[in-house]
Design a protein that fits this description.
heterotrimer, A mainly alpha (670), B mainly alpha (228), C alpha+beta (314), A: 670 residues, mainly alpha, Cytochrome C Oxidase, Chain A, 19 helices, B: 228 residues, Four Helix Bundle (Hemerythrin (Met), subunit A), 6 helices, 70% helix, globular, disordered N terminus
Chain lengths: 670, 228, 314
Amino acid sequence: MLGKLTWQAIPFDQPIPLVAGGAVFLVLVAVIIWIIVKGHLPYLWNEWITSVDHKRIGVMYMLLSLLMLLRGFIDGLMMRSQQALAFRAPGYLPPEHYDQIFSAHGTIMIFFGAMPMMIGLMNFVVPLQLGVRDVAFPTLNSTSFWLTATGALLVNLSLVVGEFARTGWLPYPPLSEAQYTPGVGVDYYIWALQISGVGTLLTGVNFVTTILKIRAPGMSYMRMPVFCWTALASNLLIVAAFPVLTATLAMLALDRYLGFHFFTDTAGGNQMMFVNLIWAWGHPEVYILVLPAFGVFSEVIPTFSGKPLFGYRSMVAATLFICLVSFMVWLHHFFTMGAGGDVNAVFGIATSIIAVGTGVKIYNWIFTMYGGRIRFDAPMLWSIGFIITFVIGGMTGVMLAVPPADFELHNSLFLVAHFHNVIIGGVVFGGFAGLTYWFPKAFGFRLHEGWGKAAFWFTLAGFYATFMPLYVAGLLGMTRRLQEYDVAAWRPWVLAAGVGVLITLAGAVCQVTQLVVSIRRRDELRDETGDPWNGRSLEWSTASPPPAFNYAVLPNVHGEEPYWEIKRRTIEAQHLAPEPDYKPIELPRNSPTGFITAFFATITGFALIWQIWWMVGLGLVAAYAVFVIFAWRDKEEYEVPAEEVAAIDRARRSAREQWLAAHAQVGEQV
Amino acid sequence: MSVSQALPGPHRRDMDPYLIRDGHGGHGGRDYPTGRGEGGPAPRNVVVAYGFWIFILSDIIMFSAFFAAHAVLATATAGGPSGRELFDPTHVALETTCLLLSSFTCGLSAVATRARDLLWTEVALLVTGLLGAMFLVLECQEFASFVARGASPERSAFLSSFFAVVGCHGLHVTAGLLWLGTMMAQVCVKGFRPNVLRRLLCFNLFWHALDIIWVALFTIVYLLGLGR
Amino acid sequence: MRANSAQPICPAHAVSRRVRSCLRTAVRISPLLPLGACGGILDPQGPIGDSDGLIMLNALEIMLAIVMPTLVAALLFAWWFRASNTRARYLPNFDYSGRLELIVWAIPLLVILFLGGVIWIGSHDLDPYKPIASRNAPLNVQVVSLDWKWLFIYPDQHIATVNQLVVPANTPIHFYLTSASVMNVFFVPQLGSMIYAMNGMVSQLWLEANHQGNYYGESSQFSGDGFSGMHFTMRAVAPADFASWVQSVQQGRGPTLDLTGYATLEKQSQNVQPYAYRSVDPSLFRAITARTVPPGPGPQTGPGGLRGHPRPEG
């Protein structure tokens, strides 16, 4: 009746997941009860859950990502502490449990931590920077978010119902086949990723269409901010790479569920094919993650240096170059599989070539700083920390790109340190830079600067303290994913990393404190004008937070830094441009489609994992019904009357006029 | 734009090639496209069709992954039956005819839509659906006959790959038929509203794309498989 | 499918000595000095390890040549052009320079060109399948990775060991590797390259130990719950000692390894203590790679299968 699901699925005999799961469940229930009792549910439902506004969706992505980063970080803490304790000793995590933890750590951090962080930033910022009202397909956008949340929910559910995969974040067969991993763990992984993968793919379609087809009048391709270019490149990669992941996981699912032989040991299966297919997705994936982060830095560094980005065109060229070449390097993840000198060399050279594109970007950022007037607010600190850290990580990457070196470093802690170096230094630092930079725009008040700086320094120091020792351990021959080890030479480095991670923990605590303190002190930190950083791109011309329609009248774009030009002319003329002719604005209606589709996707996913076939059928039928009902609605949009638009925009203009009168004088360097 | 020179030497600012010849900064409502994308947001029809194309491209990439797997596994018959022993060219030809004809009738329905003729739109869509269903029936027959002969997907990697790639296409056709039914109902109830027209366009794109994939499929899987 | 390379590495000893002294110098002048004494990759004991390590350090030094000035420039500019520094020139329109663009694209390109050469030559010279030329005849060892231990078969000596690899020093070892079940990677850090071991396939590796000693060996591909216990010791001994060890095993009281014994060995077990088989069925490796012996079974009981150190009977 319930497939493979029995009471044994709940880990009554394992204290750690039981207590952790129980605690999370209680917190969730408490939060839900508080929401209902305080009467916030209608607000939440109408303004957030059913919202199709890219700004709201972006904030929800960010929230999901921060929660999942925390969960992934806890997994990381457990891994470091286990390894610190497990020198010729069993530690506190038996292999069955430890294996799930490192698998969950990687899966959650990449799919539900880093991806939502970047997608959240792109969601919030891109339409604003393009000078338009929303993305191409707003309801699809909402569906994408909720499907991603479904994936996150399923992975976290595996903690208390059943188990998670024990195969690492990429489940290589034959280990991941049913014969060697018969439990539901790999199935949780597969369905969580298939469902959220659909969401991500739809995001890719949405943003490629938006960036290429929906921009303010006058904004030609070469007048887009670099963040939009990197968003375009990242979403093109999503469209091109995620289908491969979908296909590959489908093949694995067919093997596990229906006895197919894509990757099995017997009947002609080919395990090397899995490795090739999964990395054909996997390598573009890391560029999907890092390109938006590069975009963030391309916005932050010019703003806080007080000058335009250096070398706009070569930045665009480098971005597209990286986008293209990222599809040609996948074999460097398995030089040691025995492809031979020719093949290994070609892919090694291609991998080094990609470093050229990244190197160009780094130099352009450095020369953006040259001749600037640099302010060291938190976003700029993250950016400078990124430059230093990412360059080191890239250097170790090029070392790994040399096959003979990789023959000794593949799958070692050196590799682990390298990819954390570039992911933390690039994606995480970029995410935090973007968070602190655009937070005032999203919420109308800045984040507390002191706690932000403390978070930065602790996270930076913690990163080096944790991962530099791991580089050494890798050079000493230590391989990854060990639950226990007995080589004395490795011990001091593993212990050092165990201490280092506590410094990172302090950084995480500072991040959370920053949020709490900023919310409590939001009136002191209020952003009155909408332009707290003296920004250069269009989003800073809106109020903070922007109204639902973003721009009362779509801006006419005249140059590469359109807002900077508008500001300069305004200051020179000492008054704002004349009031525009306000017209009513049509906006898409909110819709519960995304949320309800994801609800049924969760049910279908859970049923597939536990092989409850009637529930699968039910979930699919229900999801289709949701689609039909959505397609049947008559009223897709609502209108904001011209008077309301005028009232909202006049408030923004008066704030700007006050700022003009109080601050800016002609000739003052802004 | 600022023209002040901070550095000696040539400075690009004065020579901005994107300055429109007539001196304006560029704004929406131009009546000729400049190719640089300054025309402002595209109309809704263009946006929807473009987005759907991108989606179709992603779907083709997913099929490519299955095709790639088939290329690797085509000879992995593990002592079991190969394509030559299994495939019936007549059967495949029949399936192809059904599908190609259905594409033709789908095109006819687009012509009828353009003429805003409800009856013929529905008729053409119905025939498209019936032909598509015929295709699926033939395919299921083929699968059943293979399984009955012991050539099930669990027999070998080649068969796994065959069933997966052909089955994936069949699943897409099934989803297409569901969508087709929904569209027929929508057109009937709501008439030729702008959003209904956009959806019909997307459906047409989808159906023709499935056809293209089928052509690739029967070439790579069936024709090449018969030759091995 | 894999062609034998026409040019093996130059006589191992002469070049290896030179390479090792280069490596020692490189390590000494690098900040990695203290690691040289600690074992692992920077303390290679054989020609492959020497060459791998040298290339790695060369690549590092080439990269450092660009990376160091870049990092210095980044920090310097950030500090000098801080807003409070009134002495720094403010250049609000400096956003393009053809000369700088040229340098900025050219330097990485040139370095990558150079590195590309290193990669091309290194990938061919150090391809794991490429034999090591030596005065001494190579020793053949067949390696089977199981869940979760290593089986080493000496086809010419007709003996086998589990989790212990004894070889003569200064002799090239020609490894033929496969797996009983899931993917593993055979790796002895101090001797050099690693290679995947996969079921139904045979990969090859050449290694040589130039000094007698015990070297730590491990699997570098996660293979399941018993993975952490999948390490072994590679003992390089004098050739005479190797011959006498082989003899002692052949005449000893260890079990024999036939197809039945292998089927028992295939069952999942962890932390297996090293032992030796006094004789091996000569067709066993062939049977494993041709899959006439079915691949290892998965977990038999509980989440990770059997735990402990069962010794197969017979």
